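Input sequence (204 aa), recorded before submission:
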Amino acid sequence: MKILILDDHEAIRFVVKQYVLDVLPNAEIFEYATIPEALEHFSQRLPVDCVISDLELTEGCNPSLMETARTNAKPVLIFSSHVNKMLIELFERYEVPCYVSKTSGIEALKRGIQALLHGESYFCPLVIQTKLSTSTYKETAPLKLTKGQIKVLNVIKQGHNRKSAAEILKISATTVDNHIAKARDINECDSQEELMRRFRFWEN
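Predicted structure, token format:
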């Protein structure tokens, strides 16, 4: 069996690989640190039977690997620190059979890998609890942004304040303020910190 593992942390890829080999000692593992590398694997029609993927990578959360896996009828195990109802609903649409939180521990990861490799479904207890929860809280939904807002947030993401962002982009400080204020308003963010958290998570 051929397994594609995507995670931008080498140590996590190593751990996941070891648990896969515990279940299937003869498995062939393909390891990737970025989404473009993993997508290239599919575009070259290289063999793969299933996918184990993180969500939050250094380049942002991008569901294109899940879309590609679904198109190619390859089952996916999501192994991520992020769990919320919006993501659960998204992965249900992509028919992702296994979803394990990195905070759920090694046993949950092992059970998720075993389920994936045996063609079964498994959601860890935290995912199930989140799915069944009736409490209301703000989800980490993708942002709706204009090109100007994206330019401003990209500069701020690099550690610049509003004033230096204006200088770098050669626009007025008022324009920077307006971009941030409108982005917060449209996306119902209570603060710039919440706006940037969601931006870092979703934007490439």
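Checked by second reader. The longest helix spans residues 10-23.
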